[in-house]
Design a protein that fits this description.
mainly beta; Methylamine Dehydrogenase, Chain H; four-stranded antiparallel β-sheet
Length: 197
């Protein structure tokens, strides 16, 4: 019988694999910014902010693609991998590892109202960049959603070619998740509270 594994990513010391009573570290000394299951029982990860890597069920790692852009999050829809960046872009990874920008994300209605969340602390303006913080898909793969901080949750129903806004920008969404079984349910954590559609 196979023991299920839990992967826990860290920003600076790789990830930890928990299986039953055992714990082991992988990718020590590396930043693992995002994790997502792949379609083969393995996992995908953004490593050191610029590499998209795959982990097999057995724990073998390989690099699928690299980017000069700062990668922040990822989502898998069928056999297609989407990446979100710290400068508010969405990219698609081809089967051969080529990364292509989705230009439709650049022309979303209302994009000009997006802004980077920031605060003045001790006379210094600090805060995260305007970027895509999280991505998800509905359980049937019909819709792809990207959480922009601060820019709402744009949605695409055509594989990322075109996008439409869904929630007010000032809702200040921090994460979006699709329900694992019900394709009509999407949940978002936001400054205004828990949002359920």
């Amino acid at each position: 019988m196979t023991i299920p594994s839990i992967l826990a990513a860290t920003w600076s010391d790789g990830l930890f694999v928990f299986a039953g009573e055992t714990r082991r570290q992988e990718l020590a000394g590396h930043s693992v910014r995002a994790l997502a299951p792949d379609q083969n029982g393995g996992a995908l990860a953004i490593v050191d902010g610029h590499s998209l890597c795959r982990r097999t069920c057995e724990g073998a790692w390989s690099t699928i693609a690299t980017s000069q852009l700062d990668l922040a999050c990822l989502a898998v829809v069928g056999d297609v991998i989407y990446l979100g960046t710290d400068d508010a872009r969405v990219l698609r990874v081809s089967q051969n590892g080529k990364i292509d920008p989705l230009s439709g994300f650049e022309t979303i209605p209302g994009r000009d109202t997006w802004y980077a969340g920031s605060a003045l602390i001790n006379g210094q303006l600090v805060g995260p960049p305007l970027g895509v913080r999280s991505m998800t898909a509905t359980s049937d793969g019909a819709a792809l959603l990207a959480n922009v901080h601060v820019g709402g949750i744009p949605r695409s129903t055509d594989g990322g070619m075109t996008w439409q806004p869904t929630i007010d920008v000032d809702s200040d969404v921090h994460e979006v998740c699709g329900h694992p079984v019900n394709p009509r349910t999407v949940i978002a954590a936001a400054a205004i509270g828990l949002c359920i559609s």
